[in-house]
Amino acid sequence: MSRWGMVIDLDKCTACQACVIACRIENNIPPPNPEEAALSRSIGWIRMVERVEGEYPHIKSNIMPVPCMQCEHPPCVKVCPVGATNETKEGIVDQIYARCIGCRYCCNACPYTVKFMNWYKPAWPKEMMNSLNPDVTVRPKGVVEKCVFCAHRIQRAKDRAKAEKREMTPDDYMPACAETCPSKAIYFGDLNDKDSIVSKLARSPRAFRLLEELGTEPKVYYLREGA
Amino acid sequence: MEAVKPDRGLGKEEKMTEVKDEILYQPILKTSRGFYIVFALLLFVVLFAAYAYFIQIRDGLGVSGLNSPIFWGVYITNFVFFIGVSHAGTLISAILRISKAEWRRSITRSAEVITVLVLFFGLGNILIDLGRIDRMMMVIRHGRFQSPLLWDVVSITTYLTASAIYLYLPLIPDIALLRDRIKGGFRGRLYQVLALGWAGTERQIHYLEKGIAIMAVTVLPIAVSVHTVVSYVFSMTIQPMWHSAIFGPYFVAGAIFSGIAAIIVAMAVLRRVYHLEGYFREVHFNNLGILLLVMTCLWLYFTFSEYLTVFYGAEPDEIKVFMEKFTGKYAPHFWFMVMTCFIIPFTILANSKTRTIKGTVIASISVNIGMWLERYTIVVPTLMHPRLPYETGMYSPTWVEWSILAGCFALFAMIYMVFTKLFPIVSIWEVQEGREKAHDEVAERLRTYLPL
Fold this sequence. Notes:
The structure holds two protein chains of two kinds.
Chain A: E1 4-9, H1 18-26, H2 34-38, E2 47-53, E3 60-66, H3 75-79, E4 85-87, E5 93-95, H4 105-109, E6 115-117, E7 144-146, H5 152-163, H6 176-180, E8 186-190, H7 197-202, E9 207-208, E10 220-223
Parallel strand pairs in A: 1-10
Antiparallel strand pairs in A: 1-8, 2-3, 4-5, 6-7, 9-10
Chain B: H1 14-20, H2 22-29, H3 33-59, H4 74-85, H5 89-98, H6 108-129, H7 138-141, H8 148-168, H9 172-181, H10 185-194, H11 202-235, H12 247-273, H13 282-313, H14 316-326, H15 331-349, H16 357-384, H17 399-422, H18 428-449
Helix pairs in contact in B: 3-17, 4-6, 4-12, 4-16, 5-6, 5-11, 6-8, 6-17, 8-11, 9-10, 11-12, 12-13, 12-16, 13-15, 14-15, 14-16, 15-16
């Protein structure tokens, strides 16, 4: 059984935000409307988070893309009263939109704030309606949604492998953000395979995870900048 | 030696005392114009809230001021607040009954009703907060006990059942009194059914007293569990200033605190409107005022412990939330809370000269405002400061949320008013029993306290 993981090399990341756009297109996330965005209600399964440390002139700032951390011990799964958010066998923290009651407890329990609420019914400009991705459910109003490592692509990869009469390999599956990244800063693969690129990079001395001290064991690793 | 009386309490003597307690029947028999006017005004507020909720159902939770990462706001504050107020009745009434405090007799009913009614508003607010109210049955179908929300569901429904039984049992003899007075019509039939054939026989009294005693003991741990579990919703997460071991007792103490305040306000209103000066006397307000004073001090103690721990430890994520409350955007809320939860009630209640009916009522209203703010400053500032440095907006509740809050209070008052029109708001038989027997019982008890 694979355990999908991601490594983001902050040295390579140019903060171009291509991953953010690719994610939107792939996962049918409606473009944010300005008024809602001003209320900080826009949805983005992967977002650019800017961190500024210190005070002028000793100022340091960095920008990092933050998707769902796909925790090994997800605090959001613990608190869901109906099991709408759960962990799949392959370690992806999934969300069942048809079951979610919209209590937003998971949003509050997540220390990374990477779960999003559909405050209204999602809406697209007319021109975009024909280009929605048929593989991804359009969420109804009132439910919580999140990054699921483009899990629909696993199914697609399995189907393709079956059609070609072979086993699915980890190379068959890659989330949209990793696929798009122009500077190849996002690596994706099987953490259970010790020879995979993500396994190797996750063991690198540059590797760290966000809020590691909370014991959530994210499956998204970062490679430290400038090391 | 005196002959043993064959009939305890509600036998023939009842006819004599009935005239005395005539005023307790008045709200049920007569309805003044003022009642209808107030009722209509409240109905207007409720209808407006219903309209606001309709808008929310139609358009989505976006009509509230909630956003990301402030996912919870007024509705969850209301939920915690109302569940807190529900600790008034049943818990206080049970404690007073078990400790045989004789002054309880005329106040227990009005307190117990608050519990049962207000619990619905606690539950109601959490349902209003759901993005998908249509799927609420999923909680039963797919409920997972790993989630503190499920603990809430279990605990609150148990409490609701227990406190409804605890309200109903002491009502039976009173309903029987009404059944004997009012014949026919909807009410006649209602009392006929609810009186359960009560005739005041010794056997029935024995079972009733046993039932009440059992329920009084049963509701105590349930009541404590309810607000503990409500606090667990927050403290089980690892969010800064929610993840605190003190939350269980802190919430329970706060609940009893706001509960007592609610009883005092309700009693003062009833006293005035239904002319119950003889039943809700200075001493009741004085005693409850002292209880409120104790809870004020307990509240300060808990608040102090909680905030000092956070401040001294100065863990960066926690101190951000702490500073937001002390000097930041939520400082007005926080300091107003300190003022209304401690400074005002303590000043009034600590002095026996100001611990009058008027004084305790002012203190109680202040406490209720303060306790709502306490819940608000627990829920919102933590959510404003997630651990990762995101842009965070300010949460300002919209007219929809305020209307629903007003609607909750109005609907509560309406149902309470209807209750007073159907059932005696002071337990008639318990007052009578007190008049007839309490003297001897207390004298007997006193003899057992004192050295021979």
